[in-house]
Each structure stands twice: as C-alpha cells, then as structure tokens.
TrEMBL record:
InterPro entries: Bact_solute-bd_prot1, SBP. This is ABC transporter substrate-binding protein. It comes from Georgenia deserti. Coiled coil: none annotated. Residues 1-24 form the signal peptide. PROSITE patterns: PROKAR_LIPOPROTEIN (PS51257). Belongs to the bacterial solute-binding protein 1 family. Gene3D superfamilies: Periplasmic binding protein-like II.
Amino acid sequence: MSRTIRRRTTAGIAGVAALTLTLAACGGAGDLNGGGGGGGGDDAGGDADCSEFEEYGTFEGETVTLFTSIREVEADQLQDSFAQFEECTGITVEHNGSGEFEQQVVVQAESGNAPDLAAFPQPGLLQRMANDGHLVEAPAEVETNVDEGWTEDWKSYGTVDGTFYAAPLMSNVKSFVWYSPSDFEENGYEVPETWDELMDLTQQIADDHGSDSVKPWCAGIESGGATGWPATDWIEDMVLRTGGGDVYDQWVSHEIPFNDPQVVEAVDMAGDILKNEDYVNGGIGDSRSIATTSFNDGGLPILDGNCFLHRQASFYEAQWPEGTDVGPDGDVYAFYLPSVNADETPVLVAGEFVGAFNDNEATQAVQRFLSSDTWANTRVEIGGVISANLGVDPELASSDVLRQSIEILQDPNAVARFDGSDMMPSEVGAGSFWSGMVDWINGSDTESVLDGIENSWPN
C-alpha cells in the first residue's frame, strides 16, 4: 500500500506523541562543492553557530520546492525539520503536500512544471519518472550518504537500471501484531517468537475464549477506493516468511508467476488465520466481515476484550482512540510478527525516496541534507515518524512502538523488503491484487484468485 493512501486515513499520525524539537547547533558558510553559492554565511546564519551546515553552502534568497504526499500535521513537522538548514544556508524549502501526489507529479513533470524535488512513496513511480527522462542522477555526495547510512536493499529502491536517483527519506515497519499487554498477563500468554508459537497461541486463545463474539484475531480491509490493501500486506509478509527475500523479489518482479506454488503456500498461510471462523473476526462478525470492516477500526475490538491480536503496521498507533495508553505496560502495544525461524527477521517496509528534477546547486544541497543522518535524527526527534537510516538514535523516537521499529530496521539480521504492491505495475499492485484479496476474503479459493491476478499482469 502506498504512503499516500495511508495519509488519507491517518493524516494525524505525526501528532501521536510528538516531541518538542531540540534545535541542534548549526553554522558557517561554504558551498556545495567548496565554492561560493551566493550570499554571506554570517547573514544567512544570523547569530547561530552554523558549523554543522557548512558543507551545504550558502544560497541567499534561493527557494527549493519539494512535492510530497505528506499533509496536515506531519507536513507542518516536515517543514519544521528545515528550520536550522534554512537559517544557515539561506535556502527556503517550499513544501507542498497532496493527496493526489501520484497523479499530479506526472502531470507537472510532463507539462514542464516539475518541482525541484519530489518524495516518491512508490519505487515503481520513481522508476517511471526516471525512465521517462524527468529525473536527474543523484549527486555523488548523496550516494555516499546512502552508502554509509542505509542497507543495500534501501539503496536499490532508489536505483533504476544501475543509476542511483533517490535517497530514502522516512520509513514504516509493517510487520507488527497489536495486542493488549494486560490481557496477555491476565491469561498467562507470552509474546511468540516463531510462527509456530504464534499459531499455538492463536489456538490457545480460541480454546480459552472462543465464542461468537470473542476470537483470537480481528481485522479489516475496507479502505474506500483502496479496499483490499491490508490483505495484500498480509500476503507480502507471508511470502517473506515462507520464501525469504529471494522468492519475494522474484514474485514482485514477476520472475515467477503470481500463482507460483510458493505464493499459493504463502496465501494459504494467511488464510489459516483470516479465513478460519474459529480465529476471526472478534467483536465484529464472521470471516467475511473483514472485507467490510474499515482498516481504521479493524483492531479496536482489542480494547473491548473481544479480540487479542491484530496485524497492522507501526502507523496504526494513530488509530487508537484518544486517551489510549500505547506502550509495553499500556492498553495496547505491538510485537514483531514472528518469522518461521527465530534467528531470521524478515520485515515488510514502506517509505519515500527523494528524487530531483534538476541539478541546480541549491536543489542538490537540499537533496543532500535530506539524505543525511543529521536530517533523519532531527525529523525523528520532532516526533511521529521513523527512518531506516543506520545513524538514527532510537532513543529519539517519540513512542515505544516507533523506537522498536527503528531497532528492527537496524537489526543486522533483518531482511527488509518494500511493500510489494507498491513495486508492482499499478494494474496489479493497486488493481487486481487489491480486488483479488477482497474476493478471497469473501470466499473465493486461493488458486482461482491468484490465477486471475496472474492473468491481469501487463505484457
């Protein structure tokens, strides 16, 4: 699922537990490549010590435009992350966020009215913009930052046909299960560390509490025009767990067909939970009620004791009602969705990638800043988001869930893979895959659904 869709439903995520920004020292003059970019360092930096920003140069009175899918509270916090950079460099970063980012960025580029920079939530869209000749290659300094600050997997999503275009920006971890710590303690349940332990726990909950209204799991995949995306996340997580990163990559790139036996196995693995009437849909209805239950509301029965487990991403923290205590000793918390083997950490992720439409020095300075761990730590400390940058301090995260997310991303055993539907052709990833999962939840068998999706893959 793309970041834009999430923002239509969880625009307030950044306000969940925002921290007050502790402004770092900054200072100095200079130039992107050691020369003059215009303007004096003392005037641009005012009374501040701008030594941390000398490498970016000074550009008195210049404006760089940044177009994203980020809106509302989080857009304000993104703007706040540029405060010291703007003061010390003289650049004004003009951010514009849109719920129609995917459509508008194409229109703007094709009409010759592209922004200076854009943050792409879908690597597939980034690839299209690069292949159409709209994006310019990232500066060497940006690539160096990425080589030092991210894993090769993350760099690959900003690379098209061997050319590096875009550094990662913010990130999300999708491989989480939400639960009630107090309910677990009261019933003597422990957080599972393997998939078998998770399924044993599921059966134990069904045996202990199973009724028409209380079930181990609750879920919802309704999301307006994007209905079905939460189920695609389930399948992507299962492919990672049954086939590993290599099979996942082959599936997403269509090197193996959508109905490959390995994918069938993964879908049936999800179906062991989502289509089992003994296991779902606690506090809501039977298994088919998943298709008509809003993703926003899918986990709320946990608060009423009608459900014990809900698989959803870190950003679901924003969906709990105001006043809900989210933490290891709170009303709700989340644990990592276990893998088949305890020593493996497959993790489904999403995020944005910053590409440039020109190579102006001021544009490159902003692009370089956004690829740095300085920016990543600043933005994480403001609150509500995380970054996969290895230089981020997890202690700066604004909540326990976000802190846990950063630690998962920095786990050397983690095998991170980007949301598959965002990597696939739109006819599939935002089309037949979504609708096929709705049909599957509504009773269609795995083979016929996967056959239909495979037949929809564009030639």
